[in-house]
Amino acid sequence: MSDTESKSRAGRDVPCSESPASEVKTALAGFISDINERLEKQEERLTMLDRKSQVSRRPALSASANETAPHQKAFSAYIRSGDDDALRGLELEGKAMSTAVAADGGYLVDPQTAETVKAVLRSTASIRQIANVVNVEATAYDVLIDHGELETGWADELSASTETGTGQLERITIPLHELSALPKVSQRLLDDSAFEVEGWLAGRIADKFARAEAASFISGNGVNKPTGFLTKPLVANDTWSWGNIGYVASGVDGDFETGGPGDSIIDLVYALGAEYRANASFVMNSKTAGAVRKIKDADGRFLWSDGLSAGEPARLLGYPVLIAEDMPDIVTGAAAIAFGDFSAGYTVAERPDLRILRDPFSAKPNVLFYATKRVGGDVSDFAAIKVLRFSAA
Fold first, then answer.
1. Which among 44, 226, 246, 49 is positioned nearest to 126, based on CA atoms?
2. Are 321 and 340 spatial neighbours (Cβ–Cβ below 8 Å)?
3. Distance (Å) of CA 245 to CA 78, 178, 275
4. CATH topology of domain 127-152+167-389
5. Burial status of residue 232 (CB atoms within 10 A of its CB: 0-12, 13-18, 19 or more)
6. Which residues of 85-108 are buried (b: 16+ CB within 10 A; e: fewer)?
């Protein structure tokens, strides 16, 4: 065999010896690619199913986290991997899944909890709605009142002028008192609740503060709280003097007069000075309002009239009525109805912010919520408020 033929044959044999290795590599690459593609598809499928299951979940408030029913395990296995053997086993046992019984599938259907907490409604109507409200940054608020009369005199051209009296200034100091609350909530409840506990708690604190200060504006004794206008000395309006609240008697102990029940209310209106009546309001509680609403004048017309439009207060003898539940009931000697210009007669001084401090350290594992508000109140003009006292004199 010549060298040329040997080379030619050798050139033909080379590809034959390399072909099997190349085919193995190609087949192996295709197999690995197919495995990777299948794994990616399976991973995508599991991720999609897992996301769907997470979207449909709700907080389980009634079931223990450590107790997992067989139905729940079977359902979870089916969702995560498509394994339905456990579900078939349950069917073979003759058990039906039902939401009526917790052990028979009820654990799979979580209860739905309301997003807010319903609370018993309580009235928070306050004198602050008609009083003079000022915001201060100091520890007290001073009101200067000129309750004297500046005297004058007549003089002719030749006579010497005589000295006249000056007004009387009085300083009324309204200190600010601290209203506080310190409820505590467990950290686990804050973490696991189906609704926003902190917001609900803040609302409850604000509501409680509003009711506490509303009561103090009427009957507070001034000791670490505002001074209520009904705690001031009450004197008959005929002998009224500065520093006291004038009253008009109903004529009967603990009731209106039978012959003319509306007469004492009319007397109360005109016991107040004309300069205050233009901006005056009645203040009473619901029980007293129910009794007053039945009173008629001599012509059979009710003294009470409802507002003509939404949001307008009821009116008594043409004056608005504030229903404040902290006013006393009609009993002997009680000043159950007040009438006056409260924007002149009563001043509420406060810091405008309600502060809530969250303290997770002092009472572990509970979280303390320290809420404070600083507010004060007192009578600023004793001539601007009159009351109806249910007594014979």
1. 226
2. no
3. 79, 27, 17
4. Major capsid protein gp5 fold (3.30.2400)
5. middle
6. eeeeebeeeeeebeeeebebbbbe
Q: In whole angstroms, what is the distance from residue 270 CA to residue 317 CA? A: 11
What is the band of 386 on the pLDDT scale with cuts at 50, 70, 90?
A: very high
The C-alpha atoms of residue 275 and residue 231 are separated, in whole angstroms, by: 24
The C-alpha atoms of residue 27 and residue 96 are separated, in whole angstroms, by: 50
For residue 270, give both structure tokens.
């005109």
| Tens-digit pLDDT profile for residues 210-258 | 899 999 999 999 999 999 999 999 999 999 999 999 999 999 999 999 8
Output the CA–CA distances (angstroms, integers) from residue 191 to 187, 194, 197, in the order listed.
Answer: 6, 9, 9
Please state, in angstroms and rounded to a whole number, the distance separating the CA atoms of residues 234 and 243. Answer: 9
281-284 and 319-323: which strand pairing? parallel
Q: Is 58 left (phi over 0), alpha (psi -120 to 50) or beta?
A: beta
Residue 120 has φ and ψ, to the nearest 5°, of: -65, 125
Question: pLDDT tens digits, residue range 102-125?
Answer: 555 554 454 554 555 555 556 678
Closest residue by Cα to residue 60 from 196, 199, 193: 193
| 3-state SS assignment for residue 177 | strand
User: Which runs of E-coded beta strand occur in 277-353?
Assistant: 281-284, 304-305, 315-316, 319-323, 335-340, 346-350
Residue 383 and residue 244: Cα distance in Å, rounded? 8
**pTM higher than 0.85:** no
Measure the CA angle with vertex 55, ends 54 and 57; round to 5°. 65
Given the DSSP bridges, would you call strands 335-340 and 319-323 parallel, antiparallel or unpaired? unpaired
Residue with tokens 């059979």: 300
The domains of the chain are located at 45-111, 127-152+167-389
Q: Position of tokens 């359902």?
A: 75
Token pair of 281, please?
Answer: 């309001």
Query: What totals of helices (H) and strands (E) does the chain contain, helices first?
Result: 9, 18
pLDDT, tens digit, 9 for 90 and up, residues 326-375: 999 999 999 999 999 999 999 999 987 777 777 888 888 888 878 888 99
